[in-house]
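Notebook entry, structure prediction.
Reason for the run: the old model in the group folder had no record of what sequence produced it. Starting over properly, with the input documented here first.
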Amino acid sequence: VNAASNYQKYLKLESPSAQICLKLGKNLCDIGEYEEALENFKICLDLDCDDGYLFFCMGELYEKMEDIKNSSYHYLKVLEIEPDFYEPYLEKAEQCESDSENSSALGLYISLLKIDPNNHKYHRKAAALYQKSENSSNCSSEILYHITKCIDLEPSPNPDPELYCERALLYLNEFGEIEKSILDFSIALKVNKMNLTALEGRARAYLHRMKDGDKVNAKNDLIILVSQKDGYPSENFFLGNYFYHDEQQIEKSVQYFVSAWKNGCSDVLEQPDDLALGLVTKFVQQTDLTKTNTVLVPTLYQMALLSYDTHNKKLYPPPVVETEEEEDPK
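New structure, fully documented this time:
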């Protein structure tokens, strides 16, 4: 406020210059004196001020006045008048990123998008910085907007699967748009059929939707997923349940139950009957039943302790508990 007042006093003493009127207009805009700010900017125009920054400030002023048409016009005039206008601002944004000043970097990229609204790089940076912000959970709409702009600006023959996965996860987790999430995950998988994020996400989306065939589709995605990488306990647990209950393939279900167990899935122990039968099946398969001795099947708790070496993370068949052979009375 003091700065604006001082500039106004100066103008009463001196002939107005474009530089002084521009600074005064910017200060007036910042304190909400929009009409007076506009008057000073128009003086700059009358003085033939050919300055990209003037048009940027006018775009900002019209934006605050909610005059979108005039705002867009003046923002787009900036690079027309001064093609290199963006360079110091981009350099500063990148430096802020390097210094982990994410909020400042985001503000600069948003400003750059005002003068260059179809710049793929700026939209990508803005989306990433919103995701890093402390209140990212409240920025879902902004993140979705910038990712969608990136997708729209991508050349269609070469879609970026990671962009589609990011948008699909937003649709699934933040907006509940299941159909849209499945579509985006499917596009990502067309580009790379082994994309782990897309396989996991599409399976979850199928299980949320649960139309005819969705459970089978989810199973197929998860089988590919767990075959590529360890560390998916809940996915292995689902597969164990699927093969146990839906297809009655006990031998196959144990493979997934045990994998879920080894990766720390506590849900396995909450369904002891399924795990026990699977482990018993595995136990019997690895035991020579042609022997005359009696085979005693250990309890689930004993099998859990004896079968899993927590240090080496390897599953071993439980030891066979033998009884002494009874003497033939003859």
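Summary: Confidence is low (pLDDT under 50) at residues 292-301, 308-321.
The old model has been moved to the deprecated folder.
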